[in-house]
Amino acid sequence: MKHLEDYRDIVGDEIVSEIFQKSKGLYGKKILHVNSSYQGGGVAEILNHLVPLMSDLGIEVDWRVIHGHHDFFNITKKFHNALQGEEINFSRLKRSVYTETNKQFTTYSNIDHDAVIIHDPQPLPLVRYFKKRQPWIWRAHIDLSEPNDEVWSYLKQFIIRYDKIIFSANDFIPSDIGTDSEVIYPSIDPLTVKNKDIDQATIDKYLAKYGIKDDKPIISQISRFDKWKDPEGVIEVFERVNDEVDCRLVLLGAMATDDPEGPRVYESVADKAKGRDDIIVINKESDILVNVIQRVSSVVMQKSLKEGFGLTVTEALWKGTPVVASDVGGIPLQVTDGETGFLVDPEDYEEVASRILEILDDPELGAKLGGSAHRNVKEHFLITRHLLNWLDVLKNTI
Q1: DSSP code per residue over 10-78
Q2: CATH number of the domain at 200-380, please?
Q3: What pTM value is reported for the model?
Q4: Fewer CB near the terminus (10 Å): N or C of the chain?
Q5: What is the pLDDT of residues 156-204, one digit of tens each?
């Protein structure tokens, strides 16, 4: 288990000391996090590192995952898509499965905490079915700026019961929200296997293990196999780049346990790459492999059509790897176009390819972008800053 003082060499004594000082009023307080998955996706990624550090500060932190059958997760995935603007057949049955699954969760769970933090829409209705004796906070990780009106109106009946809502960006806050709200940027943990420095021997070992040759430039996208990440569009962009510069594409991802669409997306992408040695598709949950690919890539792409934040962008920026990413969602919070990477219209394949080629043709430009990006992540997107933000929220809420 990591301890807060382990971060001193990265962020400095002043930041670490500030965290300890802010935590004083929270000793022994009991905090509960509830989400829909222990692994896969950015929420589980953040909680896996945030919860132990909160505990290290003397806060009693629990983390629970809502139980649901396949139908429930199919429905909540449709809700997720609808909250990002997609149309949905919003039937009475869908609403019934959604609420009944949340209600059932109360029969084998007890809440006696000083504050409850609910992550994303899946466990949102829990606030109705538990007897509310403490502040409840809803942490919305997705872009809610243009939700499907019918779904949004339905979910607001639960949202208005919350004492506070935390968003990832100001632009994500709907104009008709009445509940007290704040913004907290997501973060990465620089001391994890996924983000810490690794030696060349380890890099060579993993490249060989997964049959990835580094004899020519590597372009990569690392993200869940999700239609919003547009992996098939990534292949289209790669074809344009490959016509100009002989290179290789690596698509590395895994599937979140609460996302039933993942297998279909993966199979479609794998079919497109079948029989080719210049496109490698890997379905694997491996933090070391993510680290390796982000470090050996000449360019990391993130061609999302919608994106709550995009922690894989943050990870690549931290490693100083040049990034070409969509100008959507939370990505522009991390990437300043022309300074820490390039922002592009994800549906303009020629623009995306052009920016990638610009970096491939000018390694000094890539190094300059990467250096600025690393410094920006250190200042704004590490877990120590994230922890400070949550301490402020909890001290002002409990």
Answers
A1: HH-HHHHHHHHHHTGGGTT-EEEEEES-SSSSHHHHHHHHHHHHHHHTT-EEEEEE----HHHHHHHHH
A2: 3.40.50.2000
A3: 0.90
A4: N
A5: 999 999 999 999 999 898 888 888 999 999 999 999 999 999 999 999 9
